[in-house]
Design brief:
This protein has about 160 residues and is mainly alpha-helical. Helix content is about 70%, strand content about 0%. It has 6 helices and no strands. Helix 2 packs antiparallel against helix 3. It starts with 5 loop residues before the first helix and ends with a helix. About 15% of the residues are buried.
């Protein structure tokens, strides 16, 4: 039906709840370790990419099993149970699908496609956060009336 996998999709809110604080903390770590000589909000693009991709990898490792369960719930075909006696029908709940996945190959089955997905999405996260951080610095400086921006306007 239309709502298959809705509960598992709602669990997906955990991803940004983990990712964004982890990303911000990773910026603080670079500054705290003395690897960069600036505040966390003006890191170079290289460090932003490292923070974004590392945070994405860690967050995905924690939340990827829910993606597998959600996909399996959404892919469940009702006709698989048609014609079967009630005792042999397959339940379509988060726990039953999770149990079936576990029985397939154990914990490794919750990470099928993990590295491919990580390689697919990492460039997007890197570009997005480099642009985001650079726009933030640009707008903060322009709103503060930075001399560099003021002199460019008068030329």
């Amino acid at each position: 039906t239309l709502y298959n996998g809705l509960g598992a999709s709602m669990m997906g809110i955990a991803h940004p709840l983990i990712y964004f604080p982890l990303y911000e903390k990773s910026k603080d770590i670079f500054v705290g370790l003395g690897l960069v000589k600036s505040d966390p909000d003006s890191l170079s693009s290289r460090y932003i990419v490292i923070c974004a991709v590392t945070s994405k990898a860690i967050t995905s490792a924690i939340t990827y099993p829910h993606e597998i369960i959600r996909a399996r719930l959404q892919d469940f075909r009702k006709e698989e149970n048609d014609g079967l006696p009630k005792s042999r029908r397959t339940a379509n709940t988060i726990t039953s699908v999770g149990g079936r996945i576990w029985r397939e190959k154990g914990i490794i089955s919750f990470y099928d496609g993990f590295f491919v997905n990580l390689m697919r999405i990492s460039p997007s996260y890197a570009i997005t956060f480099v642009l985001y951080e650079n726009f933030c610095v640009f707008f903060q400086r322009s709103m503060a009336g930075d001399q560099h921006f003021s002199s460019e306007k008068s030329d």
